[in-house]
Write a structure and sequence with these properties.
The protein is an alpha+beta fold. It has three helices and six strands; from the N terminus they run αββββββαα. Strands 1, 2, 3, 4, 5 and 6 form a six-stranded antiparallel sheet that branches. The protein is rod-shaped, with a radius of gyration of 28 Å.
Amino acid sequence: RLQAHRTFQSVPREELEWIASHGTLERCDTGELIARKGEPVEALYIILSGHVSHFTDQGGTLHKAMDWRGGDVTGQLPYSRLTNAPGNSVVQEPTEILRLPHVLMPAIPIECPHVTSALVHVMVDRARAFKQSDLQVEKMASLGKLAAGLAHELNNPASAATRSAQLLANALVESDDAARA
């Protein structure tokens, strides 16, 4: 299964055997958390099948920052400075993962240099995806502020026109009354 895994297709069999012998195959049910915001990330998760989403808190609302499916890797990676989870990683459908505990992270570059190379690319892609997600949230917040400002600016002249029309209607009634008197 590791040889067929998208992330490890070019990794030598010996390194995959090392990963398999040190990992634990786990099955996770929908709704389970594999990482909880603010708590230490305890393992490297090689997703064999299923779907996991990562949610971050953006201004009091949960925002989906990333999705991982079979063929992806997440969690603690070699050389990563990640210690605590920035949000919750929630299993979206029944998922099978190969879990490597974080205590093995120092051994992976020594025992599995090709795996390490693949995981460094995963780490760079993950950092890029999180940055893109943050930029998207910032853009949406800016767009919201712009829309609110535009609505305010359009509302002021509209209110003034409504008030003037009401005053004009009242003045016409008074003028008509005065002319009849």
